[in-house]
Amino acid sequence: MTNTTLKLLAQQLQLSISTVSRALKDHPDISAKTKAKVNALAQSMDYEPNAYAIQLRMQSSKIFGVIVPAISNLFYDSFIAAVEEESRRNGYALMILQSSHNPENELNNLKIFRQNRVSGVFACLSTSAENLDVYHKMNEREIPVVFFDIVPKDNTFTKVRMADERCGVIAAENIIKRNAKKVLAIFGDPGLSISQNRKISFQNFMHNFSPKTHVNYINANSSNEAEEIFKKHYSKAVKFDTVFCMTDEILIGVMKAIQALQIKVPAEVGVISISNGFIPNLYHPVISYVETSGFQLGKLAFVQMMANMQTGKTVNELTVDATFIEGGSM
Fold it and tell me: What is the DSSP string of 182-242?
């Protein structure tokens, strides 16, 4: 099947290609009668502009690039849903690539975005990303970058993230309300700012307001690791009465261990997590959690992207607040 081109439309109407092109763009030099004829034929022949040619001419596309560590992550899934919704409303599409927490993949993804002349990039840093030169170069090429969730410390970038410090405080508050005596607190990758911020605020709050509560702080990089950590520490003579899970991934591992060991929640151990909300509702009783909304973060990130594109000015860092959702696990 032959694609309908400007040349083909021009031949059918016995007009010049430039006249047809200007008619489709509603140029004032073209008569209303000619515009009507051109648009009617274009519609009947399913004419679509050559998007790649437009990108070359305009030096950018109507596409935003999104880099996430894992597309399957429910938090990032809801973030993408919010960004896609706003992008579509504003005439943009998304190109979504995942880094798998690999800096080399991240660099390749950025190269693909540049080759496709994206209008802007939403980026969640991979775990071991250190060199941000490539992102500085994106900004120099007038391709705005909005970092989200896992963000750099560099304050020259636009960043949106959850109020991680507040997340740690809310979790600690509710553990103290439970009158916990011995707590296992499992945090994520210690090299990430998100883990550091949540752990520091959690530790400080527990130290200041419940200094007699014994808290064992441990890091886990996967659900399997979290499962093994729980089993190892719960098998000791002095069992903990409460477990805190910094992420959904950690919660999944902990709950696998709890179910395998047939531990009663909350009678024998209380469970609290930081979550986007889906995973805690898969269990009975529902797990109490500090809600972090990927959808709200996506909305905020898009606002910042559009502000950057329209005025070149954005707030360096904004946060989305967290709230406590009470289940039956505490």
Answer: EEEEEES-TTSHHHHHHHHHHHHHHHHH-TTSEEEEEE-SSHHHHHHHHHHHHTSSS--SE
pLDDT exceeds 50 at position 1: no
> What is the four-CA torsion angle of 232, 175, 193, 121, rounded to 10 degrees?
110
- The pLDDT assigned to 263 comes to 94
CATH T-level topology, domain 61-160+295-319: Rossmann fold (3.40.50)
Cα-only R_g, the chain? 26
Q: What is the DSSP string of 37-72?
A: HHHHHHHHTT----HHHHHHHHTS-SEEEEEES-TT
State the pTM of this model: 0.76
Q: Tell the CATH superfamily of the 164-291 domain.
A: Response regulator (3.40.50.2300)
Residues of the chain with CATH 3.40.50.2300: 61-160+295-319, 164-291
Mean pLDDT of the chain: 88
